[in-house]
Amino acid sequence: MPDQNPSLPGRALQKTCTLVVFLCAVHLSVTLLYYLNTLDVFRNSFAQNQQQNTYSTSALSRSEATLTSNLSERQPPGARSPTVKAKDLEQCPETSPLLVGPLRIEFSQPVGLKQIELENPELRDGGRYMPKDCVARQKVAFIIPFRKREEHLKFWLYYLHPILQRQQLDYGVYVINQFGDETFNRAKLLNIGYAEALKEYDYDCFVFSDVDLIPMDDRNTYKCYSQPRHLAVSMDKFGFRLPYQQYFGGVSSLSKEQFLKINGFPNNYWGWGGEDDDIYNRISSRGMSISRPDAVIGKCRMIRHDRDRKNDPNPQRFDRIVHTRETMNTDGINSLTYKVVKVEKNKLFTNITVDVGMPTR
Length: 361
Known about the structure:
This protein is α/β, with parallel strands linked by helices and 361 residues long. It contains 8 helices and 10 strands.
């Protein structure tokens, strides 16, 4: 009868096969566990990275928003949007392509402030404007000495705002209103306008304009030149010609440097007349000359009116004019004193009411 137990070599082979199968199973199990663990780590890492990226993007957006807000807060009144950077714009041309030339100026129909606002939508509070498509060559402050001339002011704003925008100026309008009923002092109000405007913006040019004078040609650019500029050279009141060669009245412009060179304007001309001749003498004594547009481009119209109360002819004007060279170093912007009563801003202009004091007896 044959032996029922397998042979010794057969049993050894069987054990070897069983061991190999077992080791393979262990290897596969370990590999599978490693793969699953690696996949979890990858998923966690991916989620963390996504959170970090989301945070970084959100933080960047907040930073950009904060920067834009800060830029907006630092913009002067009337400045272009912070999304339009000045460095991205070219300088405005020397002569604006928007000018139309001779204008029809009429005072027969009254105008209202709301009407003027609607017709000048680009204005910012305080009568501020700057071109959107180019960088203005000059920053111009318009200074208007004022008292109880509301209807004249409306005409000035109605005509001048469109003209100044076509001239591509970066500008602001400042109405310097003399408080009280003391004798009017035009030149001192002009000095005050210069000082107050510089508190708001780094103007480099100043146009000093009577409220009743309107240019008849927008090619008469209201800006500063290499010499002090007389802009109202051809007035209808004088038959569209200069009353005399030294005349410097009505509307004039001086750069900041020119203004300081003559120590501003005199403060002691109370009443009508004399200050324009004093200013002419100051300019001449500092070696500068008067520049003017020609008589056609320099035409302007005056709004007819009666003489203001408390603005009678100054009886001391002739004596003061003779002594300009002696007094100009101590009477001017360096000796200016006044008190601001109120500052009001609306869309068309900045109204600054000031107490200029009273004449010395």
